[in-house]
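Entry 14. Structure prediction run on the chain below.
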Amino acid sequence: MRHLPEPEIDIRLLGREREPVVIIDGFSGMLDVLRQQATAANFARADAYYPGIRAKMDPGYLDLRRELLLAILQRTFGLQQHVRLVSAHFSLVTEPEERLVEKQRIPHYDDTSGQVIAIMHYLADANTGGTAFYRHRRTGFEKITTARRPQYDSALIADDVDYGEPPAKYHHGTSNRYEMIEEIAARPDRLILYRGWTLHSGVISDPRELSSDPAKGRLTINMFIAGS
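Output returned:
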């Protein structure tokens, strides 16, 4: 096992609900290798919610920080048993703003159980944009649990009635629908972890600069870990 320098770790508690987001700088020490793997990967259009393309990747490099990740999952997120990796992809945001569907124009959540942890590993330059976290104004929700989802869905309909459709652009900052409560800047080899029920959105610094080329675009590794 290769020796890595100690990473820098920061834990922030978001908003009123105090949901944790863990930030690890200098996570892998193998940026060039991961970027080369992305360049050789077979990207394809992602599902209806992700505004871009993805390619499956080998998440074996996580073993470099296995003990650290397990400690964070246990102590910060309370996952003690049946911890497993659900998915791992290289990801590139590529969709022009005028082609975004309504759900891609507002912050989103990935899971409502509280037992799924999202991992975002930034591989591109810092100016490609990080991740922002939000509070929904009408409900005050910063996380969407299974119990809250019906109320949240109804509130989204009410938002459309009052404000019309969200504008055709990537959401960033505070709007009539959402209040931004935290923004994590991108940094090469920075990895962040947060519960999938947390409302969030990628920060797209300049949509005109989006690219399907892994060497030029907003390249990240997106992963999900589940447990109990």
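The radius of gyration is 17 Å.
Filed with the rest of this week's runs.
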